[in-house]
Amino acid sequence: MKELNVVAAIIKKDNKILTTQRGYGEFKGLWEFPGGKIEEGETKEDALIREIKEELNADIIVEKFALDLEWQYPNFYLYMSCFECSLKSDIKLLEHMGAKWLSLDEIDSVEWIEADIKAVNYIKESLTF
Questions:
Q1: Which fold, 2-126?
Q2: Rounded to two decimals, what is the model's pTM?
Q3: What is the pLDDT of residue 129?
Q4: Distance (Å) of CA 86 to CA 9, 30, 60, 89, 98
């Protein structure tokens, strides 16, 4: 079984969280926290900074570790480390088909990729703005 090690950014701004809509692949149209694969020799934080630049043409500050989660998909096993982040620049969608800033009241209004629901629950239970 294939294993993927990825990072994801929980980007906060004005009491809202950024979510992006997948623009390609098996999960196209579903919502996720932006991020991606960790390359060999990268720290998780460095991978996240690089991935956000590649996906959103944005610079971020990785503020703190949030949670690790694991999820079994039919074709692969996912290990994801999530970090609370803030933006240093505006975003521009380069790979996603949409983006939304969601308040805590709105966070369940989109159809999340399955693994990201664990991060959504973390936000509901633990995140302070």
A1: Nucleoside Triphosphate Pyrophosphohydrolase (3.90.79)
A2: 0.94
A3: 66
A4: 9, 23, 6, 9, 19
